[in-house]
Amino acid sequence: MTTNMISESVSETREKLWDHMRNPRMVFRTLSCGTNSLLLAYLPYLVDTVILQQVLLPYFERLPDEKIDPDTILGNVPVAHVTKTMDYRQVSDHLVRGWIYLQIEGMACGLLLYVARIPSRSLGEAQVETQIFGPQVSFTEDLETNLGVLQGYLSTDLLTNVTITIGKRSRTNVEVCYMEELAAPENVQTVIQRLRDLDIDGVIDSGKLVQLIDDNTFSIFPQLILTERPDHVSEALLEGKVAVFVEGSPFAIVGPSSFVDFFKSNEDLYIRWQMASFIRLLRFSALFVSLFFTATYVAALTFHYEMIPSALLVSLVKSRSKVPFPPLFEALLLEMIIEFLREAGARLPFKVGQTIGIVGGIVIGQAAVAAGFTSNILIMIVALSALASFTFPSYMMSTAVRILRFPIIVLAGIWGGFGIMLGASFLLIHILRQSSLGRPFFLPFFPFRLQDIKNSLIRFPFYSLGKRPAMTRSPDDTRVPDEARKKRPVQ
After folding, report:
1. Where would I find the beta strands (DSSP E) of 334-393?
2. 20 to 30 Å CA-CA from 282: which of 25, 168, 423, 454?
3. What is the value of pTM for the model shown?
4. Are residues 34 and 167 in the same domain?
5. 20-47 pLDDT per residue, tens
6. How many domains does the structure of the chain reveal?
């Protein structure tokens, strides 16, 4: 412990900091201010050199000639954040975050001055969770900017932050945000405890962190929501949920989250409740289309010809007359081609990716039919299944559904309709067993909560949503008081 204590000698401090940092870009400056000898240590690519040259250095030059102590500078230095330290480890941790270390010769302590200029992009529109109505701004990689944007949406002192440093080598700052009177203490403590229990080299992005703190690592379904939208996080906090921000990541983690939450979009709150209800029902219908449409085709052609109407059966026979492969292989081939095109479009530059997705799909589809590899009807079915998966607001849930489509198709090709029911039953049982921060994942259907049904598959008018979700177990579960609902205008 004593080896990390700051020495009174400036030259010894310089050597110790060099041993701790080992950074060739480290800058050490010695200033003579009367009888005082000052040491400045900083990383030039992390500090704001304008503030250093035009504010701090002139201030140090105006220091009195007589002997001074750090407390004199502590109360007068023109910097917003100043902290006193006596530990080399604390100094090195702050230097890599854009702080300047100041020490006076003969003093066994120093000052840390915050003058950081961390490179980051400015606020822009959301790229992943796009929407027509509502706020268009998204988070950035700068943690302070994200917290400022969130505070702009929730201008209240109830918004509470807890800072945790994760990673033995990355030393990444993580902020846990919640509303003091709305979030259940057990939810907050669960998140904080899971973060503090992590023993890992480093965490670079929230996408990695969410896999380390969720309830079931082996489940394909995401149990915590990743979002880049400040309005989404704000609404979640008002429901009593907890949000986690990772330094360097533009995505926030929100929990606890139910299975239904992954099919909700914040845009549902900005349009009429009838429109929002229709769109939500459309998304849940798309879930079944994406999972079972292609599998139903394979099962019908392999085992259940009698279920197909005779008029349609004639078209199917003509369409597949030149196809040499069984329906199972044909369906898997087309599904793989669709996934190839989707992944290629996502990894290529934006304009090139769009062209590859459209032209590649048309050319490959027409060539496959002409060569007799597949039928026109299956191309339409696979295209509809792929299109349905794009309706989900959550990219993680959309990817999970895309992957699950393959084993269900295989089950349909092996056992027909029985295989589809077997796969659906397994998925349902698996979802019922999941949890999010210890809360049931399939709320409000299991356990059944009638009040929360009003904002699940459909969205009732706002005055009908008087209670917060049961999943959050908020200490204050009243969102709209009964008096306010009684006073609402009625035509």
Report:
1. none
2. 423
3. 0.88
4. no
5. 777 888 889 888 877 778 889 999 888 8
6. 3
